[in-house]
Amino acid sequence: MQWLSHCCFLYYQQYKLNLDNELIIVKTDNNKYLAVVDITKDFVTNEGKFHFKEIESIPSIVKSSTGQEFKIYRPTFKEFILLMKRGPQIIYPKDISQIAMEANISSSSKVLEIGTGSGALTLYLLNFINNGGLIVTLDISKTNQRRAKKTIERYLSAKEMSEDYNLQFINKELSEFNFSEHSDGIDTVITDVPEPWVFFDKNIIDSDVFWVSYLPSITQVIKMKECLELNKFENIEVKEVILRDWYLNKKIARPDNKLISHTGFLLSARFIKFY
After folding, report:
1. Contact status, residue 42 vs residue 65, Cβ threshold 8 Å
2. Is 216 in the same domain as 233?
3. Percent of the chain clearing pLDDT 70 (strictly above)
4. Which regions of 31-166 does DSSP assign to beta strands (E)?
5. In b/e form, how buried is each residue of 246-263, taking b as 16+ CB within 10 angstroms?
6. How far apart are CA 241 and CA 150, in angstroms?
7. With 50 as the cut, is the pLDDT of residue 17 above it?
8. CB–CB of 190/268 below 8 Å?
9. Rounded to two decimals, what is the model's pTM?
10. CATH of residue 25
11. Rounded CA gap, 227 and 230, in Å?
């Protein structure tokens, strides 16, 4: 029995060590925090603190130094995107899901993403596109792409997702990008840059491609729409995704006071090569 107890103790200690570097949500009644477990450190907020080594399992509940309960669990994609450290403004989850729909994303899609940004959209696409597909992501900023790589690696590691995927980073100005060097099999183009029409200054699309541009202002939308029409795209549509939560409490049911309204316009189109 003593031998068994010792084995159980060693297993428990190893389990706790395995929690080190885990990506977690720390939730109170009023706040959510995204954190990485470091069993040598404290987790500190204005609501109290606790030592990471007090986390015995995930999910679990630990109490802070002030008696505050912290609920510990692994983040969803939505929580990760909204709470992660980032540089450029992200595309919000409500828009990301609609982009995937408009772009006809499947497990075998081959996507050119123009504007890596913080990597939120790139990461979302990796949830769908397996190693039979491809993502080529272009950005002028090396800093953005370094941050995006780190974000993607962190999330995939936490989710224990396979790293067997086809993802290529290209650090280049859109005006210098040669689509013909990367166009083999590309069936989708998604842009999140201020002037996506620059793509067509030196490039043409002459094979079947879905196109989606995420644009903050209607003047950008109008200019890009004219550009797509000039380049013989079909089925051009403009959308704006409005999201409103509802408050439910016993007999009360009403729209929440917070409304996530305009974050950007989605301009979608399709180039169809008719024979």
Report:
1. no
2. yes
3. 91
4. 32-36, 42-45, 48-51, 60-63, 69-73, 110-114, 134-139
5. eeeeeeeeeeeeeeeeeb
6. 29
7. no
8. no
9. 0.84
10. 3.10.330.20
11. 5
